[in-house]
Design goal:
Radius of gyration: 21 Å
Number of strands: 4
Order of helices and strands: EEHHEHHHHHHHHHHEHH
């Protein structure tokens, strides 16, 4: 329609015809959306949330920040930086507490914005952030040992160490087929990503995994039935307006105090991660983001994500970098990515039930 609209060249975006801007950012936007779907699902699972909650978060938080954020390139959604905090809260209080934490962290971020405290976030030393990032990666990896070893339905504990010990106590039940699948996909992702970095291998590997999960079906492949998302989250579906209901015990003073402390931690990490991501994007593109606008957009994004059943969100460093490296020139790429994410997830999310857990 835009191609045949005689007046579309009359509209400009940042001094450039709108149609030209859309053409430049169409490829990067779709690329990010394709990568964003499997990552949002996997990071939601790592946070002990449902896959649908991850998609809802990417849609609401990602769209709001794409339209109204202070960065032209940030991609906002579920991230590994928050997965450890969210997993602990989910195990302690149940999965339904995560949307409440998103709302609480959103309002706390508004207070940070109103008091100008966001200016202090970027004074955190870079080596501290590097250590934090490494720690997050270790926690995510260790919390997924049970999937890699094919250990099904082990009890979850609030403590990271207890979860690792639980896995080690059941290591004799390891399924070698799951280990082979895990190693094969990990090696393929790392090796192919090194030699062919321009190809979104997360998408390719997800498609291969879904195909194998589908073939496994009821009879399995060579007698082995692959454990998929459907075995843990049956009836996978997506609703964009699923308003959550919160348990009365969440508002008991002691529990509310605990949740407030968790929300404070989430707020700090979310703001810090978002601002660092925006600064990295600025260095890559020689631009300058509006810090105040970005913090306010993140605040509103988390409130809306929580209101419709999502989890706390922050800017994703890897997806933001992919956005820039794919050729994005402005926020139009993020907007296209959000629209593409909504369309693709509504159509293809039911097929993700075949995605193997290993």
């Amino acid at each position: 329609l835009l191609k045949h609209c005689a007046d579309c060249e009359m509209f400009e975006f940042r001094g450039e015809p709108l149609l030209t801007t859309i053409k430049k950012n169409l490829g990067p936007g779709i690329t990010v959306a394709l990568v964003n779907i499997p990552l949002s699902i996997s990071l939601a699972v790592a946070s002990d949330a449902s896959p649908a909650m991850g998609c809802v978060t990417a849609i609401w938080a990602g769209s709001i920040c794409a339209f109204f954020g202070g960065s032209q390139f940030n991609i906002v959604g579920p991230t590994g930086a928050l997965s450890g905090l969210l997993s602990i809260a989910s195990v302690q209080h149940g999965q339904d507490v995560l949307p409440l934490l998103a709302i609480m962290s959103g309002f706390l971020s508004i207070l940070v914005f109103a008091s100008n405290m966001d200016k202090l976030a970027l004074f955190v030393p870079s080596n501290t952030m590097q250590g934090f990032t490494i720690a997050v990666a270790i926690i995510i990896a260790c919390n997924q040992i049970n999937f890699a070893l094919g250990l099904d339905k082990l009890p979850r504990h609030p403590s990271f160490v207890d979860n690792v010990v639980e896995n080690l106590n059941h290591i004799q039940d390891t399924e070698w087929q799951a280990v082979v699948m895990f190693i094969s996909f990990l090696a393929g992702q790392v090796t192919l990503g090194k030699f062919f970095p321009r190809i979104p291998w997360a998408v390719v590997m997800s498609c291969i995994g879904i195909f194998l999960g589908y073939l496994s079906g009821t009879d399995g492949i060579m007698g082995y039935k692959i454990r998929t998302l459907d075995s843990r989250y049956p009836g996978l579906s997506l609703s964009l307006f699923d308003i959550p209901s919160f348990k009365p015990e969440y508002f008991v003073p002691q529990t509310l105090y605990t949740l407030t402390l968790t929300s404070l931690s989430i707020t700090f990490v979310a703001i810090l991660e978002t601002l660092i991501s925006a600064k990295i994007a600025d260095r890559m593109t020689k631009t300058k983001f509006n810090q105040r606008q970005e913090v306010l957009a993140l605040s509103v994004a988390n409130v809306f994500a929580g209101m419709f059943g999502g989890i706390p969100a922050t800017a994703a460093l890897a997806r933001t970098a992919l956005n820039v490296k794919s050729g994005a020139t402005c926020r139009v790429s993020g907007i296209i990515s959000s629209i593409s994410f909504i369309t693709l997830s509504l159509i293809f999310l039911p097929y993700f039930k075949f995605l193997p857990l290993p």
